[in-house]
Amino acid sequence: MKKIGIVGQGNISGAYLSNIGKTFQNIQVAGTCDLVREKAENQAKAYGVPKIYNDMYELFADPEVDIVLNITRPNDHYGVTKAALLAGKHVYSEKPLATNMEDARELVALAQEKGLYLGGAPDTFMGAGIQTSRNLIDAGLIGKPIAAQAHFLGHGPESWHPDPYFFFEKGGGPMLDMGPYYITTLVNIFGRATEVTAFGSISFPDRVIGSEPHKGDVIHVEVDTFTTGAIRFASGAVASYTASFDVYTDMYDMLMIYGTEGTLKIPDPNRFDGVVKVFKPETGWVDYPLTFPYSEPSRSLGLADMAKAIEEGITPRAGYQQQLHVLDIMTAFSRSNKAGAPIKLDTPYERQRPMWQEKEF
Question: Which of 249, 272, 275, 299 is the most exposed place for a label (fewest CB within 10 A)?
Fold first, then answer.
């Protein structure tokens, strides 16, 4: 049993608190803190959290805390994770690991130096939908995977999110917000990426918030809100990916894997469930049943896997190597757009072991 200290009680915290100690019984909440103490108090009351710390440093100093769960805003991930590592704590962070490669590499080096575990979201790739898809592809159902097409399309979270500013600040945007789900899935299918070519733009420089408590406020956009490009993998496969907060559509997610003998449609990578569809010339589209566990909302699956990895002295599936490589790919979209040229990637990556076909936690 590993005890978790949670830093930050934002929009996603309830999804974690619903599963820690319940769906996943090898982890338990030790306590939490938030810059707005009322948020921590409300979540503690709602989910039975035993302790509220005055700040993150008090949390880090608690010998009961084994792993720090960092679910602060993206621009705060680096500072909170670094402080936790310096305090000698393992860290599981919400995506992304950091908002730039310099900070992310520093965190990885620090974790390695101190012999600490570091990793984080997303963990949806460990769920039934994506694991079933990976298993079918690895078994050769669509032949050799040679290409992919993926997109996340929408018109931004300012219409519904209670505090949407950070989505449009540096370190935000649709790529760093939603890209982790799609790019993590792609590297779990194809392996290491080697090169990115991309373009980006800001279609709406100002955004009006449509939700309370900031309804009517104007956000001045600092990051690309439409990004599109191509990723080349070491295997020779090429994937196109588009991430946008600028378009109106009801076809918001797509992830297609094209093989030499057929095509597989992976379910929404922001979910753990979904329908796996396969097209072959001789059969047309066929739905395939999910053959792996964790089809229910299973946020904290990666955290439970890290806790088990610490106990067994093995590499967690959602470890820092994956987070670093995914960040390298995502930030390469912006770097390529600014440079007007392809960007070579130098981060290592090896696909982690697949999930078991029965529950592990």
Answer: 249
